[in-house]
Write a structure and sequence with these properties.
Blueprint: E1 6-13, H1 18-32, E2 36-42, H2 54-68, E3 82-86, E4 101-104, H3 107-113, E5 122-127, H4 137-144, E6 149-152, H5 155-163, E7 171-172, E8 194-198, H6 206-219, E9 224-229, E10 243-247, H7 254-259, E11 263-266, H8 275-282, E12 287-290, E13 305-308, H9 313-324, H10 328-342, H11 347-368
Parallel strand pairs: 1-2, 1-4, 2-3, 4-5, 5-6, 6-7, 8-9, 8-11, 9-10, 11-12, 12-13
Organism: Pirellulimonas nuda
Protein name: D-inositol 3-phosphate glycosyltransferase
EC number: 2.4.1.250
Length: about 375
Amino acid sequence: MRRPLRLTWVLSRGNLSGGTKSNRLIAEAMVRRGHDVTLVHSTAGKQWPSIYRVRSLYRRVASEIRNATVNRVHHLEQSTARLLPVRSRPIRAEHVPDADFVFATWWETREWIDSWPASKGRKAYFIRHHELHGGPLDRVRATYRMPGAKFVIARWLQRLMAEEYGDPASVLIPNGVDRSQFSAPPRDRQRVPTVGFMYGQGWKGGETAVEALRFVQQRFKDLRVVAMTPSHQIKHLRSLVNCVIHYRPAQNLIPTLYRQADCWLLPSTTEGFGMPGLEAAACRCPIVSTRCGGPEDYVIDGVTGHLVPVGDPKAMCDALCRILSLDNAAWRQMSEASYDRSRQFDWDHSAQLLEEALFSRLYERSALDP
């Protein structure tokens, strides 16, 4: 009989990112399998810019003022796994319990655990994106070449680890859906055609999405847009007619927003996985996504939605219009196909895959010990 494993996840900080939520959910699925799991995260604030960097300092002050006016909840407020907040950055070995495995969850945390003693666990890296946007390129890339087990959440990341970083042994552990939160009964199209999306700048593709939706509004004059956003920078959103903007919506509101949409749009230039798309699919939304990585694992072109080229607002518009133009019976067929596809992504199944991979590595290493 296999013994319970002692597992530690090391997170940079508590926040509302999809990566933080996904790490918590796979950890909780491991708890359900009987393992002893700790989620460690830093509560130390970011370092302030130098007083000589006036623009950076101004942006930081403005950010702190804005954040003071909102409820700063995050995905590590509560969990069935043991939560261990640490008032230090970086987190050091003495802050965490001994374990069989310790998981880095971000390039920075992989640097942190690199020098930790063997008692803190065999080193593993949960890779949720190609995080070149997150830090100095040379340091980020170096973490993908560090030894230890690698776990990835999407097939494109598995290929990337093999082709660019020389590691063909990374293990695919897909994200799942929290079905206690995201679900919907069979439903019809909305009376008013409605498209939803998560608005973000940069690689999130928000500007391209807005341009595409302007084109859609030329064909569907009554189009309603539902936008979620974590950002105050929404001037492009305001150019859309009949757009309802939800700034950092409460977690219990998000499923309702998915259920209000005839189609959910993912306009990113790159996505590790694209959790909002899978959550929307679980709420019976067809999905239009760019070919940006992760969503290609759960969007079947022409069946559950459509895949379009990155950065192409015309193609995005055409795909959205194809879905909005469906009669109710055809729309329901695509809605049900999207829902059925979402059911193939399950946290408990992913935890089983992770457990098997961990025991395999544990026994493999034990056989090598004298």
